[in-house]
Write a structure and sequence with these properties.
three-stranded antiparallel β-sheet, Nucleoside Triphosphate Pyrophosphohydrolase, homodimer, alpha+beta, 12 strands, 2 domains
């Protein structure tokens, strides 16, 4: 069977650039079968890290806050953009500490995934931190007023299935922990 | 405890509009504590539907194709944008049929999630279709050359944990099926 071939970028024009937050480009593409596409849009957003942080009793360190992208108060997880040149795990540790005051010495990657297969929208890096302990107060530097909530893992999973407004990274992260549990038995 | 309050949009300027594909706006915001934010960006992308489609033997109907947002050949699931006014379940049924030629009479929602809590980037709607049967050939209308692959559910889960390049919606969808299995026993 013939290999699946990449598309070729024939020309590219940046339409909007407000780095590090956002860059939008229009690309002219040549498809493998020779078709030309004049206007395929790419949206670059910063990569981010998301943490499922568990206490020794397996409760999840969650955050309730108003998210302006969702236009709703949602229950989420510690998460944030990678700083320039920052390693994803370092960003995850930093965000957990800054947003919740908790730390852990036990970290495991749950994978990294491109946010949008058509537009890009950055890559999300997922981590599991276990046996978390409180080391300080949250630093309260985010734009959002954040309320840290400790939620049982089963309850967090039930919330995912309840239709409550949630962001996709929360659903992905909790789902990946279920996979991890299943794989490790 | 005081309620978490939404942010107020004081002014809004559309910077780029290429509907239905993409619209970017810059908003001036007033936070609940009175702080002003002059440049918060919103990215509207179309809502989309994603399907975990299972055969009677529980294999997943997957698709291997080059995804230009990911700049890679990835293994994914039937998925696509909702057409104007289209119900998410109708979009899911349509995409499954168009992209793979399979249909099902057994559908269940796995939830809907905002793609980006800061920027928006649309809402992803997840569905599980069981006992799928082949009804036709794929219609081959997508830009991508697509190879339909039937992948065991356990293998699909292992691929998620393997570090292979995948889009977030694939990880979310398979994770949500694990939650569903766990919840239903």
């Amino acid at each position: 069977m013939a290999a699946l071939r990449p598309w070729r970028v024939r020309a590219r024009k940046v339409l909007l650039s407000v780095r590090p937050w956002l860059e939008v480009a229009r690309e002219e593409l040549v498809l493998p079968d020779g078709r030309m596409i004049d206007d395929y849009y790419r949206v670059d957003l910063p990569d981010y890290a998301v943490v499922v942080a568990l206490l020794p009793d397996q409760r999840v360190i969650a955050e309730r806050r108003y998210k302006h992208g969702s236009r709703a108060v949602t229950l989420g997880l510690p998460a944030g953009y990678l700083e320039a040149g920052e390693d994803p795990l370092c960003a995850a540790r930093r965000e957990l500490r800054e947003e919740t005051g908790f730390t852990s010495t036990r970290w495991r990657s749950l994978g990294a995934f491109v946010v949008d297969g058509n537009r890009n929208c950055g890559t999300a890096h997922f981590f599991l931190a276990t046996d978390c302990v409180r080391a300080s107060e949250p630093d309260g530097q985010d734009l959002e007023e954040t309320r840290v909530e400790l939620v049982g893992f089963a309850e967090m999973s039930a919330i995912l299935r309840s239709g409550a407004p949630l962001e996709i990274c929360t659903a992905t992260a909790i789902g990946l922990v279920h996979l991890e549990i299943r794989a490790r038995g």
